[in-house]
Please model this.
Amino acid sequence: MLRPIAVVAALAAVALAGCGAGKGSGGDPANPPAQPYSKRSTAPGAVARVTPADYRRPIATYKRYVGRQLGTLLGEVAALRAAIARHDLAGARAAWLTADARYESIGAAYGAFGDLDAAVNGRPAGLAGGIRSPDFTGLHRIELALWRRRSTRDAAAPAGSLARAVARLRAKVRAMTMDPLEYSLRAHEILEDGIHLQLSGQASPWSGSALVALRAQVKGTSVVLATLEPMIARRDSSGALPQARRALRRLSTTLARLERAHGSLPRWDRLGQRDRELVDGLAAGVAEQLAYVPELIDPRPPRAAQRPFGDSG
Amino acid sequence: MKRRAFLGSAAALGAGAAIDRVIGPGGGATAAQAAGSPAAGAAPIAFEGAHQAGILTPAPPHAIFAAFDAIAPSRAELATALEALSERARRLTRGYEALLGAPGEGPTPDSGILGPRVTPDGLTVTIALGASLFDHRYGLAARKPRALKPMTTFPDDALVTEECHGDVMVQLCANGEMTLLNALRDLMRATRGSLAPRWKIEGFLPVSKEAGKPRNLLGFKDGTANPDTADRGLMDRVVWARDGEPSWAAGGTYQVVRIIRNRVEFWDRVARQEQELMIGRDKGTGAPLGRSKETDDPGYPSDPDGERIPMDAHIRLARPRTPETEGSRILRRGYSYSRGLDLSGQLDMGLVFCCFQADVEKQFEVVQKRLAGEPLIDYVVPTGGGYFFAPPGARDSQDWVGSGLFV
Model:
């Protein structure tokens, strides 16, 4: 499981380290000289820099969306528990897919959820003992029970904990604070997580539901982009947002075609090589375009130009 | 794509004058080096030319063979992606000042894994097209090279579907692995959303002070009997496609790539003499059995019954050196590979066989049929690969490999 906070920190570090790389053969390559801030090219003319205050409205809008999704998720988890309680394996699996996709559609909020994210969406990776760790709980613990173990009995206790975790999240969402920088990065990184965790087969190995999750992530990304659109559009001289939107639409259309062809979205590990390459390639194409977005709306103040390493004075 | 292209051309402007590849008497590429080129001290192998580089040019120690499938939504976008491959390849092979990125300019333009100054490092980028690209999707069926078809499954093959075929093959060769990885990342990024990776394999050649051809992972000299790339007339007959090809394809060549695993643990449990009888060469010197030097003629007329070199020895079947069989010669340009273990704990290593020829059926496949059932086959297992057509080279700095398909 990628820990969103750590990812943000790492990315911020990369972004900062990358600032000022540039021309000139002098200086230490590990500490390259800075480009003057005035040479920035993506916010031309009189468009002001984004500040954290600009994020108030988008984040408020997004939090309302998350609140609605969590409300729906609460009902879906109740349906999952009911199917498990009556030992209806097929019904439980269907309910699990619905609930898992719901949670995947609010990926920009994971960082703000804190430990509750792991309680809902934790993965065995990083836990001593892996799937046998007592700390492995939540949706994927239930996935293990329903698919690999074909057991509703084994899913009962984790489903109870899941319902409690989702209820706590729902209660918390209104008071939750979201960091503007993290929110801007999630516009790009929800899809990066989709590629890294879902399309690699790691995240949902037993249900094979990567395509279902990916579709929810595409939706979640679109929601984030919609809240940020006014901010991005004013600064997007190279058309990054329309290109990203086009790429997202192509991916959505392809997923819809696969769903029509198979009756429902097929297991990721059963998809033919050509279709798998198509989804992989389109998702990677989306990520390539989305990567231009966060820097356009970076809420941090500009960093002072750094003196080249070894420069005197 | 547009932004990437912009960055690419911007960088090209700063990268010095274009350099022409000169096919010298050696047939290999030499380069006229432009003054002020960032590549000072490491002559680039020019991307442009009548034929693509990476075919007759000497094989440097490292290679990547990467197969892609086209996912471009239209014929125009496929053309854009292929053009981008050439555009980026031109820059990569010439050397450049890397764009590491500046504040406000988005993702880092170049990987930066070679530092701020990227030298050519012997890099060649060879682009080839598979038969599947000429299906109904892009309306290219009428332009298919005459002899292009999907790779045949031979009786001794054990093909793994995921590592076979492909719409586009990109062969990268260079002196250093980092140069290859920089090029691969750059080319994949420039074509993301249009070309989806299908399979890839990395190869290497020994860096050895030993004279003659390099050894393969069976411990034998390999490639000794290759046709002389300096002999232009011979190359015209053996390598370059001509008769009956669509006009855009003249000057191209058919490329066969085969991943041939060597069962090295099993092979190492075989006595030297048995190995030599299977190959037909001395393991120490590389000379044909009963001869003294690697380059000596095997002298089959003096050994009509295979007393010295068995009739089913690999080199004898592959090239019997009779007037009837000389028309099936091929130009081999293979690499060794090594990657991981299988479930039995055995090493997965062997040969990335690669050869170029004017006609796959009349050359590679004829050789392959002669080799069917050879004793060596117990020790080698073809598991992947494909047939491709490498179009003629880009004519000039505006042209790109495959442009003739779209005019």
Confidence is low (pLDDT under 50) at residues 1-41 of chain B.
